[in-house]
């Protein structure tokens, strides 16, 4: 009996548990039928513009404040609001349907008839019957089909292959006698490799009815998906539980059938606890628009107060102020948000059409692609392919490369004696290394038809097993307690091609490898040496330990094999004079290195360790037990695996750098490997002078900062330990110094450090930062960045699913930024300027009209004219500019320098805004003043003349400032003109034409020529004095 530890805070559950529990429901729906309207309205009225227009509309319901009908004031705003409500409703209904489908998935729950008060409405007998220990069906057990949402802790459910796990479970029993099953965790941690799981030994051997008598004690709910602690009790027997006995919610059973007990439900499931609401990213364009909207609102309020003072009449001041506010409200661009949203959807559609492999997951910020100053990139799987091949091996006294692997194979063969399983001493070192590589791993061969798939958690391990196969050592089988290998005694072929250029008949796919030589599985006994290793204990790799180990027993000899990173392994192995030098040499070639070590254990040593290790697992601290055996290890050798560069990685980085985008590589790999990749990808140029900082102490930080400030170095390579010191004590100064460098490489960085660097870089530089990665450890960096790119890679889809844009490869980031980003930003900026210009011209005309009538709050236009001006008369031509571009895709990619101008925000900066503002004031003044001079002493004539001039001026502005007059611009312009001309018939009581229609037309044309001349002069001067980069290229 295992005693309960002091201060141990454990939960417990059992069959028919009556304790309180959370419903096992998933709810992604944001609203209920009662909260939909309040929550959406609350979100909308958090924007000051919506509050403003609502108040304006309310004032028009009172006669004393009324300028126009309430419909005229509230109509456009209500239209925008209704569109928002419809969009939110459609999205939430879709979420509700997905939740309902998820929660109603059916599962088979075991019911004990001996103690059953429930009504069994459906009983199924299927392949789960194979799980029973007896051939006859136990009458005391049946199955009830229940929805996922009804599961509670203590329930025992039956699962089959390819079923999703509905809640966090303990594996009680499997169809396999050894209790092994595989699960897929890609929807939990983003890793596509299958994970091996093991049923509880205590329950694997008992009959199903006895499962109702077990009790499970386990830790409180936690976000930690890579660790677990608990105990299971049956009668007087107790067994300790760990991660290998669990299946977390949303993983998938990849093989076999299972009986499992639910331990967590609802929000206490690991998957739910690790699900955070996505960061609501607000683009810099939205921030700029909000700033300008506030300026315009203040201008409107200021003008209202000024005109009220100038009116100087007795009575209620509030009446005049509110009336003027209503009249001048046209300057607030109510339709801007909706128009920009439509433009974003259109840009997203254009991206999908142009780049089918790219998935736009956040359609709210496509123009952000045109404002990136820094790109933070992972290395493995992002700049490299995550396709591994063995390149070098070093045994301490001699090294082998691809060119000499055949010699190693021949030397191994020469030392294999005719007697099976015996070896001569001179080749022992080579054999020990090869044996360690073939045993110390987490690779499982899985038969799929006639072929064998190598399933592993890391492509490095697959590459090593493939290499072992190429020299004649084949992994035949791996079970929980046994590894079986075959050694071909006379290996007559060597697959050099597969090792040199990574080509093979079996494609690399999701960390799986097809066994190259199927015939080896059927070799005659005399042609191979069969080796069986009993697995006594395994120590999985973790980010904390940075190593994995295994204790095996073969031919009555107990051996410990360990492999891991050099920084850890050099503390565990016997002193030698070659490890540091050779590790550095391999890393300089960009290779991923592992130190392989071994120690023979006596039976007494192993039993002592076993007892201490069991005790340590109960205390959740095994460090003391591990220290008993992980010392004085013999270093067998060093492996170097190459991760191939992504296609066109070099040219992509070069062109991004030419676009003035600074590249930062942030990786978990070692300094030497990262340096090599930085050089091979041309991240560091030939003339670059870079500073390398490793294992920096706190007192050295100021010296490093001084070196960076001196600008002697244009690049920095720094490890995670040193980065943490800088972030803890000199954060802002460090980030700002690094921001001025040409290149930055961060090594040995944790996911937390990646996110911190991303956040601080954006915060302190006020620049837009993008991040790109492919693994689960890149998610924090991607979500923290202003713009995140996720590559669908061998490490899974988690990065891709968390990103704003999902890519298939690194090189796709180039057209996304240089072409689509540039186009989206410039087009959206032009759209916003035209909409603000449209409202500002009308504001100026209203102000002049009121001032000429003794500052009286009188609106020049009413009803349909006001509504139509911002919609049917001008919206089409203005919005069509979104489809126009000043150049083509090939030019943007050929000349990355075109991207530079965007970063400063010149297309929508303060200078450009003020220029447009000046043009708007000029045109509004010209249209109004000249019309007042030319009108024929009738108010209706001035309405028709000014409104005609106003609409035509806006259309002319579109034709003048658009980047290209294409078919959409021409078509929308013609349609708008036709609608406007038709309005003289439909609205003949408002748009009254004079008798002399030719003179009317001449006046309109003359006024518009005078109004547009300022834009013509400004455009000509700008192109002559400051020609755009596109024009320079064309010249």
From TrEMBL:
Domain P-type ATPase C-terminal: 801-1027
Keywords: Magnesium, Membrane, Metal-binding, Translocase, Transmembrane, Transmembrane helix
Domain (P-type ATPase N-terminal): residue spans on this chain: 11-72
Presence of keyword Nucleotidyltransferase: no
Membrane topology: Multi-pass membrane protein
One GO CC term, this protein: endosome
Location relative to the cell: Membrane
PROSITE patterns referenced in this protein's UniProt entry, alphabetically: ATPASE_E1_E2
NCBIfam families reported for this sequence: ATPase_P-type (TIGR01494)
Entry protein name: Uncharacterized protein
Organism, as annotated: Anncaliia algerae PRA339
């Amino acid at each position: 009996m295992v005693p309960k530890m002091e201060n141990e805070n454990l939960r417990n559950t059992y069959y028919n548990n009556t304790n309180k529990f959370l419903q096992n429901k998933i709810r992604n729906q944001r609203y209920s039928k009662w909260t939909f309207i309040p929550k959406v309205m609350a979100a909308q009225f958090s924007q000051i513009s919506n509050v403003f227009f609502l108040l304006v509309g309310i004032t028009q319901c009172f006669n004393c404040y009324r300028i126009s009908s309430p419909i005229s004031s509230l109509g456009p705003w209500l239209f925008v609001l209704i569109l928002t409500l419809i969009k939110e409703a459609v999205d939430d209904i879709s979420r509700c349907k997905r939740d309902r489908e998820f929660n109603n998935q059916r599962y088979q729950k075991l019911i004990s008839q001996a103690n059953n008060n429930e009504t069994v409405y459906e009983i199924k007998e299927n392949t789960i019957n194979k799980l029973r220990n007896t051939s006859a069906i136990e009458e005391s057990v049946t199955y009830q089909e229940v929805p996922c949402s009804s599961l509670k802790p203590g329930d025992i459910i039956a699962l089959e292959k390819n079923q999703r796990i509905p809640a966090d479970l303990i594996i009680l029993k499997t169809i396999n006698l050894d209790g092994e099953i595989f699960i897929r965790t890609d929807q939990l941690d983003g890793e596509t490799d299958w994970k091996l799981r093991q049923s509880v030994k205590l329950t694997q051997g008992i009959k199903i009815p006895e499962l109702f008598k077990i009790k499970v004690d386990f830790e409180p709910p936690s976000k930690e998906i890579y660790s677990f602690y608990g105990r299971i009790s049956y009668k007087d027997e107790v067994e300790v539980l760990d991660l290998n006995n669990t299946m977390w919610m949303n993983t998938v059973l990849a093989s076999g059938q299972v009986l499992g007990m639910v331990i967590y439900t609802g929000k206490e499931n690991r998957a739910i606890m690790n699900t955070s609401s996505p960061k609501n990213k607000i683009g810099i364009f939205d921030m700029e628009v909000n700033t300008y909207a506030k300026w315009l609102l203040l201008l409107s309020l200021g003008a209202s107060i000024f005109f009220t003072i100038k009116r100087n009449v007795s009575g209620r001041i509030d009446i005049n102020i509110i009336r003027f506010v209503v009249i001048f409200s046209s300057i607030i661009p109510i339709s801007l948000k909706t128009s920009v949203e439509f433009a974003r959807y259109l840009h997203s559609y254009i991206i999908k059409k142009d780049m089918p492999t790219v998935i736009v997951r956040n359609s709210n910020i496509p123009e952000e692609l045109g404002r990136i100053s820094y790109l933070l990139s992972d290395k493995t799987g992002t700049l490299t392919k995550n396709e591994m091949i063995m390149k070098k091996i070093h045994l301490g006294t001699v090294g082998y490369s691809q060119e000499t692997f055949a010699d190693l194979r021949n030397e191994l063969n020469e030392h294999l004696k005719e007697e099976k399983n015996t070896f001569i001493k001179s080749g022992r070192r080579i054999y020990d290394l090869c044996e360690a590589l073939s045993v110390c791993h987490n690779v499982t061969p899985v038969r799929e038809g006639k072929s064998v798939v190598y399933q592993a958690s890391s492509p490095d391990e697959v590459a090593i097993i493939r290499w072992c196969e190429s020299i004649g050592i084949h992994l035949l089988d791996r079970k929980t307690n046994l590894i079986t290998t075959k050694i071909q005694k006379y290996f007559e072929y060597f697959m050099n091609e597969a090792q040199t250029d990574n080509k093979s008949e079996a494609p690399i796919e999701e960390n799986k490898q097809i066994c190259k030589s199927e015939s080896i599985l059927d070799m005659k006994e005399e042609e191979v040496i069969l080796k069986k290793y009993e697995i006594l204990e395994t120590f999985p790799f973790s980010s904390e330990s940075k190593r994995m180990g295994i204790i095996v027993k073969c031919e009555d000899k107990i051996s410990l094999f360990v492999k891991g990173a050099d920084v850890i392994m050099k503390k565990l192995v016997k002193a030698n004079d070659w490890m540091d030098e050779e590790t550095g040499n391999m890393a300089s070639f960009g290779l991923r290195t592992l130190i392989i070590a071994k120690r023979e254990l006596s039976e007494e040593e192993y039993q002592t360790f076993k007892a201490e290790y069991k005790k340590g697992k109960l205390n959740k601290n095994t460090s003391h037990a591990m220290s008993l055996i992980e010392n004085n290890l013999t270093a067998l050798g060093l492996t170097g695996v190459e991760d191939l560069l992504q296609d066109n990685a070099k040219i992509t980085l070069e062109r991004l750098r030419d676009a003035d985008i600074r590249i930062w590589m942030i990786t978990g790999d070692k300094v030497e490997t990262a340096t090599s990749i930085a050089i091979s990808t041309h991240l560091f140029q030939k003339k670059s002078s870079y500073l390398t900082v490793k294992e920096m102490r706190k007192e050295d930080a100021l010296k490093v900062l001084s070196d960076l400030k001196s600008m002697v170095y244009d690049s920095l390579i720094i490890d995670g330990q040193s980065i943490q010191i800088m972030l803890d004590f000199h954060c802002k100064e460090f980030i700002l110094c690094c921001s001025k460098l040409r290149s930055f490489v961060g090594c040995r960085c944790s996911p937390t450090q990646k996110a911190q660097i991303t956040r601080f870089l954006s915060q302190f530089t006020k620049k837009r930062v993008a991040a790109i990665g492919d693994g689960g450890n890149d998610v924090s960096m991607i979500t923290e960045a202003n713009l995140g790119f996720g590559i669908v890679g061998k490490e899974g889809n988690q990065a891709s699913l968390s990103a704003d844009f999902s890519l298939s490869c690194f090189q796709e980031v180039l057209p996304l930024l240089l072409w689509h980003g540039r186009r989206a930003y410039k087009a959206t900026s032009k759209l916003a300027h035209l909409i603000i210009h449209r409202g500002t011209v009308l504001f100026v005309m209203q102000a002049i009209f009121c001032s000429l009538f003794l500052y009286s709050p009188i609106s020049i236009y009413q009803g349909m004219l006001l509504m139509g001006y911002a919609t049917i008369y001008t919206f089409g031509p203005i919005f069509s500019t979104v489809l126009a571009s000043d150049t083509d895709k090939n030019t943007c990619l050929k000349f990355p320098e075109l991207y530079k101008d965007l970063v400063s925000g010149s297309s929508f900066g303060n200078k450009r805004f003020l220029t447009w503002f000046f043009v708007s004031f000029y045109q509004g003044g010209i249209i109004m003043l000249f019309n007042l001079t030319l009108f024929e002493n009738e108010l209706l004539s001035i309405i028709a003349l000014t409104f005609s001039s106003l609409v035509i001026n806006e259309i002319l502005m579109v034709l003048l400032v658009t980047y290209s007059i294409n078919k959409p611009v021409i078509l929308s312009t013609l349609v708008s003109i036709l609608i406007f001309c038709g309005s003289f018939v439909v609205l003949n009581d408002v748009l009254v034409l004079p008798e002399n229609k030719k003179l009317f037309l001449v006046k309109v044309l003359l006024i518009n020529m005078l109004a547009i001349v300022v834009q013509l002069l400004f455009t000509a001067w700008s192109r002559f004095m400051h020609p755009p980069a596109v024009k320079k290229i064309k010249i």
